[in-house]
Design brief:
This protein is α/β, with parallel strands linked by helices. The chain contains one helix and six strands; from the N terminus they run αββββββ. β3 and β4 form a beta hairpin. The longest helix is centred in the first third of the chain and has 19 residues.
């Protein structure tokens, strides 16, 4: 019943549009009988001049050269709370590598004069196909280390190593 009322209302509206915008001219609106009238549908309205599109330049992030290694969430390689990062995030005990989180040396963090903050995304290149990619900064390294990153992996991932000449790009 509601559908019928709705369709009836819509059809009433649709069929009344031609009556609202009548295109037949009245004799008083024309100067000559054979001269056509300009109506609503054919009128030339003034238009704004087209503006040229703005060119937005995207700055390509500059690489930061660092050394890289991997770390496991164990007391021997972290502090007394290995499953909680420096920013308070909780590491999965079953699959810590699934997070794609990274720890950075203090000199890279904004708090100590760098340009990176917790939660920022880094593009890492120069390690391997498996480890290169995007990571989120969640942890900090001990204060003696400079220009270093540590990639969080699990002990079951069978990844070990140290790499020089790694490039990180600050994406945000």
């Amino acid at each position: 019943m509601v559908k019928l009322k709705l369709y009836g209302f819509l059809s009433l509206f649709i069929f009344s549009i031609p009556k609202l915008f009548s295109v037949t001219p009245h004799r008083s609106e024309t100067t000559a009988l054979n001269e056509p009238l300009t109506n609503f549908f054919t009128a030339d309205f003034p238009t704004e001049p087209e503006k040229e599109p703005e060119v937005i330049s995207v700055k390509k992030p500059k690489p930061i050269k660092v050394s890289a290694s991997v770390y496991f969430p164990v007391v021997a390689q972290t502090d007394s709370t290995p499953f909680i990062t420096a920013d308070g995030s909780k590491i999965s005990k079953k699959k810590p590598g699934k997070h794609r989180w990274v720890a950075v040396s203090r000199n890279l963090l904004r708090k100590w004069g760098g340009s990176i903050e917790y939660g920022d995304t880094l593009q890492i290149k120069g390690i391997s196909k498996k480890l290169d990619g995007q990571y989120v900064v969640r942890d900090t390294m001990k204060r003696q280390l400079k220009n270093r990153i540590d990639i969080l992996v699990g002990q079951d991932d069978n990844i070990m190593g140290f790499w020089n000449d790694v490039r990180i790009y600050h994406l945000n």
